[in-house]
Specification:
About 60% of the residues lie in helices and about 5% in strands. A hairpin with a 3-residue loop joins strand 1 and strand 2. Helix 1 crosses helix 3 and helix 2 packs across helix 3. The chain is elongated. The chain has about 120 residues and is mainly alpha-helical. The longest helix has 28 residues.
Length: about 120
């Protein structure tokens, strides 16, 4: 079961998980994704919550519904997912990172050193 954060709507947290699956290419363009019901069971949430996730992702153009067949990753789903995640990063994560860097006295030079070490250890970019 996924541990949900209290400061963000559950359907958006599930959407983030879907976004990661697409960005990590676990789900590729045109591929069928788990159903609303299967997702509700997997995350142990109400199907209405997962329906909100699917509606959100569909509104963003990341997934689409083939009537009677289910939901699939859109042809430009990877690009739209990446753009959405980048926008979220720039608006939410980066300001928080800058605040933390300032409070902790971490410089951009320090950050570059940590990033180099991160890449040397073979982590995904």
């Amino acid at each position: 079961m996924m541990e949900f954060k209290e400061n963000q709507a559950i359907y958006l947290q599930i959407a983030d998980q879907f976004v990661e699956n697409i960005l990590q290419r676990k789900w590729t363009v045109g591929e069928k994704i788990p159903s609303i019901r299967d997702t509700a069971v997997e995350f142990e949430v109400n199907p209405n919550t997962t329906m909100r996730t699917f509606n959100y992702l569909q509104d963003k153009g990341i997934i689409f519904n083939k009537r009677g067949l289910g939901y699939f990753v859109a042809d430009d789903g990877y690009e739209k997912t990446r753009a959405l995640k980048k926008e979220q990063f720039l608006e939410e994560d980066l300001p928080a990172l800058f605040r933390n860097m300032e409070m902790l006295g971490i410089t951009f030079s320090d950050l570059q050193t940590y990033y180099s070490k991160y890449n040397q250890n073979g982590h995904d970019k």
